[in-house]
TrEMBL record:
Cellular-component GO terms for this entry: cytosol
Sequence similarity: Belongs to the UPF0301 (AlgH) family.
HAMAP family: UPF0301 (MF_00758)
Organism: Pseudokineococcus marinus
Superkingdom as given in the UniProt entry: Bacteria
Classification via InterPro entries: AlgH-like (IPR003774)
Protein name, as recorded: UPF0301 protein HLB09_10330
Amino acid sequence: MTDGDRYVGRLLVAAPSLWEQEFRRTVVLVLDHDDAGALGVVVNRPLPVRVDAVLPPWQEHVTEPARLFRGGPVALDSALGLVVVPGDGPEPVGVRRIIGALGLVDLDAVPADVSRSASGLRIFAGYAGWSPGQLEGEVAEGSWLVLDAEPSDAVTSRPAGLWADVLRRQPGRLSLLASFPDDPTHN
């Protein structure tokens, strides 16, 4: 792993102090990070839209909740597929591994071919993107916690609880952030 891709495959967990509505209590899986910037998808924001509203062939293959997820504020009219493929064998047809069990899906592939070897599949509308140095600056100022991901984070059946779940499994005092109140003024 080079210094430029140190966040690839890791989670950006919004710090409790990040109040910007777009990213408040979000969990972002970083898919690309180099000198040109960074790109990821918010993995805990399901939309009230079924996948078949935009990509009908994929509906029966996506992981519950079988909804389209808002991947971020950029290019909401585009779709990105993410898959969990256990093992370290060759890439299945229609999948490009990112890191470990996580891979990007070619949405022009045959859904049954992709899902045959997958333990989870999710479709995102849009993505989160950062210009060169922007993400590093946001991490340095404390907006994001950079934490290790588990493959199941990308396709959890409990997206609403993912922010707290990821924090709760951290060692030491960091796990205490999981119980940080949604609105500290009501504490």
